[in-house]
Amino acid sequence: MAWASVEGVRLNLKVVIITATLVAICGQNPQVKVHKRFEYKYTFKPPYLAQKDGSVPFFEYSGNAIASEEMVRITPSLRSQKGMIWSKDMTNFDWWEVELTFRVTGRGRIGADGLAFWYTAAKGVEGPVYGSSDQWIGLGVFFDSFDNDNKHNNPYINAMVNDGSKNFDHQNDGATQQLAGCLRDFRNKPFPVKAKIEYYHNILTVLIHNGMSNNDKDFEMCIRAENVVLPKNGYFGVSAATGGLADDHDVLKFVTHSLRSPEMALVPDNVVDAAENKKIEAEFAEYQQKLKVQKDEWAKEHPDSVKDVKDDDVWADLFMDDATKELKQIFEGQSAMAETVKALHNKMDQIIGRQEQALSMLTQVQNMRGAGGGAPPPPPQVGGQPPQPAIDTIRRDEVNAVLANQRELVSAARDIKNFVADVHNKVSNIQQNQGRGQGSVQQVSGPGTNSDVQNMIAEIRDSINHVKRDMTNGYARMQQQQQGGGGGAVSCPEVTCSSTTMVALMLAGQLVIILAFIMYKDNKESQAKKFY
């Protein structure tokens, strides 16, 4: 009885502790939402990413990087290429969030080397760490495509903080120096891959969108590290490199937001003064003037294509890509077909009404003829007056017109059906082309799967089967001879036969040749790979 009372007291204490914990957790203040501010001086994105002179506003690129209106190709799919792009100005805010949208595509199953995001105290130069210099001061987030340590854990994403005294560990893919990492495949995806890198109150968070859908909110946690100390002000950058294997490393968007607490958001920004405001307004007015001049020049060069380009939507339509234009034309055609079908429906109602009216008149005429036993007599003339007009009945030409209209409607309905089927086929083809991946995967044969080795093994198997058949046939012939000779002694032919030991030695020799060939092939493949 005493034991039961003690257990009841313990249970009550546990319930009280759990209840107090839940009350404490629920009583805490909810997390206050962080205020974001778009930083255009640390951002580039399409359209018109690069200017006519090839420059990217507020950024500078070098190496093998190529800038276009839609993206910046950090490195092309060629061997031993390095490229980078860095912001021109140093940051003037403490906390930030960067959304990096990129593509890594290649023809092979394995790619190299990878792409890197940088936030450093000084701009990087061309070097061995994914195209940028080593011993940096700040943060590096690496998207590693090549497996240097042969642990089969690539593609891999990891983050590393350097104080300027560490050299990147290429042999181990930086595994001994990383803050955290995750295994994510970012090569040859149907949609662009997105990385959201956030640094707020010394907490580094990296969220990854795997590029398997076009849902902008489909992010998953990859890295979260606390007590991360980075330079208060620094430069943003992206670099990439290729080695013995090569991929296209394309950056589509680099969008930066500064993060502020609600208290700091209410404080006016002292960095941007009146002079800076005037400078920004002057730059904006100059840009608007240049844009207007370019629009006028384009209108003069393409007078046939200019309809009414006063609205911005019309200008946006002029710079639309081919797939979007085709889809828009299809939708416009479907809208036009809907209007045509609606008009045909109204016309059909009118024709049906006329047919019903004609049928009622025909019925009246037939009833009148049936009652009179023949054609109705003409009305008599009274006082020399002209006869009264007969009742209006449907004529033959009107019947022919009704039938012709019906034939035209049937033909138009058949044409509309064929056109709708054609549009449906085109839309299906476009969706299949857009959903199909850009990069192709090339099969790479591993050890033991070579066609020459398989052919050699098949030849050895056929030879052994042939020897087995010969031995079986010889034994059968010897038995037949003994039965035919009445049990007399039969002399064996004097031939030189291979012993079992000799056959085993031959098989062992062939096996050694196969193994030597496999080792030679592996050596050639390893030499073709990159090795730091």
Molecular structure report:
With 532 residues, the protein is an alpha+beta fold. It is 41% helix and 20% strand. Strands 1, 3, 4, 6, 12, 13, 14 and 16 form an eight-stranded antiparallel beta sheet that branches. A seven-stranded antiparallel beta sheet has the order 2-5-15-7-9-10-11, with no helix packed on it. Helix 5 runs antiparallel to helix 6. The longest helix has 51 residues. It is flat. The relative contact order is 0.10.
- Assign an overall shape: flat
Give the biggest beta sheet: 8 strands, antiparallel
H/E element sequence = HEEEEEEEEEEEEEEEEHHHHHHH
Query: How much beta, percentage-wise?
Result: 15-25%
- Show unreliable segments: 1-6, 20-30, 379-385, 437-449
Report the structural category: alpha+beta
Q: What is the terminal separation in angstroms?
A: 75 Å
Helix content class: 40-55%
| Strand segment tally | 16
Radius of gyration: 42 Å
What is the overall number of helices?
8
User: What is the mean predicted local confidence, pLDDT?
Assistant: 79
Q: What is the gist of this entry?
A:
The chain is of the alpha+beta class.
Keywords:
532 residues; 8-stranded antiparallel sheet; alpha+beta; disordered N terminus; flat; 8 helices; 7-stranded antiparallel sheet
Helix/strand layout:
Elements: H1 2-26, E1 35-38, E2 59-63, E3 66-67, E4 72-75, E5 82-87, E6 95-105, E7 114-120, E8 126-129, E9 137-144, E10 156-163, E11 180-183, E12 193-200, E13 203-209, E14 220-225, E15 235-241, E16 248-260, H2 262-266, H3 274-301, H4 312-318, H5 322-372, H6 396-435, H7 451-484, H8 500-528
Antiparallel strand pairs: 1-16, 2-5, 3-4, 4-16, 5-15, 6-12, 6-16, 7-9, 7-15, 9-10, 10-11, 12-13, 13-14
